[in-house]
Amino acid sequence: MPLALAHRGDWSASPENTLAAFEAAERAGADMVELDVRRTADGEVAVIHDPTCERVWGSQLRAAGATIAELRELRVADHGIPTLTEVLEAVALPVMVDYTLADVVEPALEAVESAGALDRVVFSGGNVEGHLRIRSLAPRARIALTWTKPEPPAGALLEQLEPEFFNPCWDLGIEPFVVAMHGLGLKVSTWTIDDETVEIGPGEAVCVRRGQIHGFQNRGDIDATFLAIATPGVFGPAYFREIAEVLSASAGGPPNLAAIGQVMQRHGLTPAPPR
């Protein structure tokens, strides 16, 4: 049965990974919300995707180098960075807790167990070391194994982790993964896109709702220039500087898409391959 998983909540009207975004997703009928966690300098579990606060919160603070009190001072309108404990208290839905670094495993697991939420939390990510630690510390924990490699994971790894979900990137050609993982009794989640094409011409405009995965394709024979306006602003100036450097390095030739993708990922964006 398909599940509607709200990636960082419903952030069409409020910043991602905030209580307002999660509560909006719950009201919209999501089956589960997904969030990202990082460990702060004082050992708290902050709900934030990027290593720095620049893209969403307009600050150069690094989550790992700041205390939770310092992070709480960052505001966009009346929204702030919550802790995992606060989200678990505010949201009754199942929660997918995605992490990148293994140093957050112990405090995150402690927060989940203290909230009595072990049965409704799924720990997600591609950090195998962290997943193995979770499995060792909490044998009943639910795990989603994120996967970006073209080959499937080894059977021995799956036996060690006992994941409930297999989470491959959508552009891997996931049908074989789905068949194989369903055969092993695993559920499959993935990054998804809405397969819709909107044609725009000179003088025309299109609005892409915040949070939607999207891309642009020039089907003409000459270079095209367009103006993109992000509102409310979610990218810091560093993003545009880095993109400009990549474009300048191409010296009038085709841009280096791999380098652009690396910049996007550093700033919390998911590159979509050309179609």
For the record, the count of structural domains works out to 2
> What is the CA-based Rg, rounded?
20 Å
Count of helical regions? 10
Shape assignment: globular
Order of helices and strands: EHEEHHHEHEHEHEHEHH
CATH class of the largest domain: Alpha Beta
Q: Which superfamily, in CATH terms, is the homologous superfamily of the largest domain?
A: Phosphatidylinositol (PI) phosphodiesterase
Classify the beta-strand content into a percent band.
5-15%
What would you say the CATH architecture of the largest domain is? Answer: Alpha-Beta Barrel
Helix content: 25-40%
- Extended strand count: 8
Question: Stretches where pLDDT falls below 50 for ≥5 residues?
Answer: none
What class do helices, strands and sheet pairing give? Answer: alpha/beta
How would a crystallographer describe the biggest sheet? 8 strands, mixed
What is the third-level CATH name, the topology of the largest domain?
A: TIM Barrel
General description of the model:
- This protein is α/β, with parallel strands linked by helices and 275 residues long.
- The protein folds into two domains: 5-188, Phosphatidylinositol (PI) phosphodiesterase (TIM Barrel), CATH 3.20.20.190; 199-275, no CATH class.
- The chain is built from ten helices and eight strands.
- It has helices spanning 19-28, 54-57, 68-72, 84-90, 105-114, 128-137, 155-161, 175-183, 237-249, 257-266; strands at 5-7, 32-39, 45-47, 95-99, 121-125, 142-147, 165-168, 187-188.
- Strands 1, 2, 3, 4, 5, 6, 7 and 8 form an eight-stranded mixed sheet that branches.
- Helix 1 (19-28) links the parallel strand 1 and strand 2 (32-39).
- Helix 9 (237-249) runs antiparallel to helix 10 (257-266).
- It is globular and about 60 Å long.
- The two termini are 28 Å apart.
- 31% of the residues are buried.
- The mean pLDDT is 85.
